[in-house]
Amino acid sequence: MIYAIGDSTGTYTVTAITSCSAASPPPAVNAGGVVNDGNYSAEGVAPGSIVGIFGTNLASNTVVGGTIPLSDALDTVASVTFNGVPAGLYFVGPSQINAQLPFESLAEGATSGTVDVVVTTAAGSSVAQTVNVLAAVPGIFTVNQTGLGQAIATDNNDNALAAATGSIAGLTTHPISISSGHALIIWCTGLGAVTPPIADGANSYSSDGSFTLRRSVLTPTVTVGGVPVQTVYASVLSPQFVSEYQVGVGLAADTPTGDAVPVQIAIDGITTSNKVTIAVAP
User: Which of 27, 96, 173, 282 has the lowest tally of Cβ within 10 angstroms?
Assistant: First the structure.
């Protein structure tokens, strides 16, 4: 998974690790091996979301993409396609690829269905694997990158992570305070289509440094400690990052407090996110 906090430029680095033989066998995608990169659920993925693709011989090296818009070829990976539509690539490695599921991977007008994923390298193409696509599959990013535990959720006032004070080395952390009235920003993927639309692989910045605010078409509901939030201020694409959404909420007065208060995002009638945790103070 790739994420960042408080970086307005969306900087990426490129790393290469270990080469494989030129005679490598063709890539193979595991059955059920395409998952939401926030919650690692195999129930389905959403158009425009960050997905993890797991398999074997997927790439010769471990390489992180270095461009926005995302490149659709990286290292020995010539392409990753969903129903023939090339996907932008965040990261490739021998057993995992992180990619953006193209917004137009489903047939025009469809909100759900199945698509075939194919990975093509210098060694050949994988056998197509079927992927279930839903209109939205929210996945909240977590600090440990497993979809469990401490959420990537920040205080909108100072960008501090909503975790116990001093609990994570190298990060500014403190509980989100109910009485402060500060908005909680939950970082996630998989909220589906946005308006106005955006090109695959792109972020919302223009060449002149301005950006377009893009809201999710579907409205999420959020609970913190089992209590519905008081307000959903925004459900938008993060301007600087590709396929990362931000859901801004205000906590209700009766929200439970503590260092591991559960948080979930739901899209009514479609799906519910992973249950993660944040720290909440009175």
Answer: 282
